[in-house]
Amino acid sequence: DEGLRLEAEDYYHKPIKPAVLILQIEKLLDKVTQKIRVLVADDHTVMREGIHALLSLQRDMQVVGEAVDGREAVEKAHRLLPDVVIMDIVMSGMNGLEATRQICEGSKQIKVLMLTQYDNEENI
């Protein structure tokens, strides 16, 4: 009980099975180091899958969803509440700029990182 009063997460009796110990450490790390939750929005399948694959290699990031257009990005952002949305600007239907506006109006906590094929700022 003293350990719990000192804010220890939990306690286990010795001897503890290695598999149980590893599982408990993993659970503890998930509590301490929460992963950055990412939504990927891009209408090009290859780009979307490539970004997803890249982020999946990062231990501190988790892709929580993908969207193929702005409308789906808005819906999923409001439903999944990611920390970050990686947003393509040019998409069919609702573009990334309008989707970003709607996402940011709905939740100030969600950050948006925009991707564009354009080199100059006047097209952004």
UniProtKB/TrEMBL annotation:
| UniProt keyword Metal-binding present | no
Q: Which InterPro entries match?
A: CheY-like_superfamily, NreC/VraR/RcsB-like_REC, Sig_transdc_resp-reg_receiver, WalR-like
Output the Gene Ontology terms for molecular function: DNA binding
The residues covered by the Response regulatory domain are 37-124
The cross-references to CDD domains, in alphabetical order and at most eight, read:
REC_NarL-like
Keyword Transport assigned to the entry: answer is: no
PROSITE patterns xrefs: RESPONSE_REGULATORY
**Keywords, in A-Z order:** DNA-binding
GO annotation, biological process: phosphorelay signal transduction system
What protein name does the entry list? Response regulatory domain-containing protein
